């Protein structure tokens, strides 16, 4: 079986090389292989030059000439994926790719079609932690789920399900859109704990991105 790792990248010159090497070092186990699909979303800080120089087995780099947002980059990566399942990977170093195996094991054994990695948010800044917990609470309230971390980047989804998502969001409201569409389609979301090291510098704003995320949850709950 093959796992497609989808990495949207925008101005991550300081971390992208190390991140890709960490991803490539993951051993998924016997009979498993991995492809790494990086979409450079119009970076202007030298990220694109770094990617062009990298020679990593299984790495494919796709370039956007203009920035289309995280959702746009994910759509491009998903369209290029050839694996049996996909996982989303942020381009910073907050998440540990070695945790892939925790999610992948459930997929390979046929015990799950969707698996979320649950973070320990205790070290996250207070405003972000409260925002994440509120959005997870709102998801559970609206959709009758028992999720512990809706906003997690580590969402592993089998390809047949991923191909039906028809993602529309361009920014960080993509996370609730994915969750809403998975639950509405009747799929069960399994959860496993993962490691997490929050970084200080963030591109996501609890106020600018939090309200669109909440609206996305409400929209897909009541609108068809």
Structure description:
The structure is a single chain. The chain has helices spanning 16-24, 47-53, 69-80, 100-108, 126-143, 159-162, 174-184, 206-222; strands spanning 2-9, 33-41, 59-64, 85-88, 114-118, 155-158, 190-193. Helix 5 packs parallel to helix 8 and helix 7 (174-184) packs parallel to helix 8. It has eight helices and seven strands. The mean pLDDT is 93. It is globular and about 45 Å long. It has 224 residues and is α/β, with parallel strands linked by helices. The longest helix is centred in the middle third of the chain and has 18 residues, at 126-143. It has a seven-stranded mixed beta sheet with strand order 3-2-1-4-6-5-7, sandwiched between helices. Strand 1, helix 1 (16-24) and strand 2 form a beta-alpha-beta unit.
